[in-house]
Design brief:
Elements (H helix, E strand, L loop, with lengths): L4 E2 L2 H8 L5 E6 L4 H17 L4 E6 L4 H6 L7 E6 L2 E7 L4 H10 L3
Parallel strand pairs: 1-3, 2-3
Antiparallel strand pairs: 2-4, 4-5
Helix pairs in contact: 2-4
């Protein structure tokens, strides 16, 4: 998969146990740094291809999901593998850093 998916609480269970690593970006449309992270996330999704799933969660629309992950600042990026958090990053991250985190998780 090469597109960033928009994740909801209802759909979360489908990706949380995905066989490949999952990168989740917790963001909001009013957040300037989050808007900067968007194109980088698109690049990561294209580069990772089928090796990883890349998703975004709008914290305003999905506060329970953001709370479940203890998101206090945005953007917060989390890499999951087998439903477990492998890494957590806060603030704008480079494509290189995100791809390295995915690779470390097994992508």
């Amino acid at each position: 998969m090469s597109d960033v998916i928009h994740l909801t609480t209802e759909a979360f269970h489908k990706v949380s146990s995905h066989q490949n690593p999952v990168l989740i970006d917790f963001w909001a449309p009013w957040c300037g740094p989050c808007r900067m992270q968007g194109p980088i996330l698109d690049e990561v999704a294209r580069t990772a291809g089928a090796k990883a799933l890349v998703a975004k969660v709008n914290v305003d629309e999905e506060p329970l999901l953001a709370g479940q992950f203890g998101v206090q600042s945005i953007p917060t990026l989390v890499v999951l593998k087998d439903g477990r958090i492998q890494s957590r990053m806060v603030g704008v991250q480079s494509a290189h850093a995100l791809l390295a985190a995915l690779q470390q998780a097994g992508a």
